[in-house]
Design brief:
With 86 residues, this protein is α+β, with helices and mostly antiparallel strands. The chain is built from one helix and six strands.
Length: 86
C-alpha cells in the first residue's frame, strides 16, 4: 500500500477523487508516496505521486463520464452539472 498524505479522506474530496484515492492507496507499492492537493507553486493538483519506477506523476481527476456530456467541439466540453452530497 502506498503512503497517502493526508492518510484519510476529507470532505473536500469529490466522488471521483475518493475512488482514485482508494485505488492508488491499494494498488501502489509501499515505496510510493501520494499527496492530495499538494501546494505546487500556488497550484493544487489532485494527486502528486512519487515512486522509484515512475519518478513524479501529477494527476488531475475530472468527475464526469460519457453519459454526462451534453456537447463538445474542438475547444470545449459541456457536461451536465451534478451536485454530490457527502
Amino acid at each position: 500500500m502506498a503512503i497517502m498524505i493526508p492518510d484519510k479522506i476529507t470532505r473536500s474530496f469529490t466522488e471521483g477523487e475518493r475512488e482514485v484515492f482508494y485505488f492508488l492507496e491499494e494498488k501502489l507499492p509501499s515505496d510510493y508516496f501520494v499527496w492530495y492537493e499538494l501546494d505546487v507553486e500556488d497550484r493544487y493538483p489532485d494527486f502528486v505521486i512519487v515512486g522509484p519506477q515512475i519518478g513524479v506523476l501529477i494527476l488531475e481527476v475530472k468527475d464526469w463520464s460519457a453519459d454526462t456530456i451534453q456537447s463538445f467541439d474542438q475547444d470545449n466540453i459541456h457536461i451536465l452539472k451534478r451536485i454530490i452530497k457527502i
